[in-house]
Amino acid sequence: MKVYLSNELAISTVTGIAGIGKITAHGIKNIIDKSVSKLPIVGKQQIMRTQLYLSL
Fold first, then answer.
1. Is residue 36 part of a domain?
2. Is 43 part of any domain?
3. Which stretches of the chain are DSSP H helices?
4. Is 11 within the bounds of a domain?
């Protein structure tokens, strides 16, 4: 029973962290999007690659 409970706790903790990660990633993406509009095309391609990496 203890193992089961600790697994549940681990799962809920990971899910919670993932949820927080999504929120912050979304906020960061909005900031990046605003910054990207001021950058030259080469910079945009580099940031798109970074965003793709972050989303995986």
1. yes
2. yes
3. 2-36, 41-55
4. no
Range of the domain at 44: 24-56
The residue type of 34 is K
| Total domains, the chain | 1
Look up the pTM and report it. 0.29
25 touches 54 (CB < 8 A): yes
Residues contacting residue 2 through CB under 8 Å, at least 6 positions apart: none
How far is it, in rounded angstroms, from Cα 27 to Cα 56?
A: 16
Rg of the chain, C-alpha, whole Å? 17
Per-residue model confidence (pLDDT) at position 47? 64
How does pLDDT run along the chain (56 residues), one tens digit per residue? Answer: 455 556 666 666 667 766 766 777 777 778 777 776 666 666 666 666 666 666 55
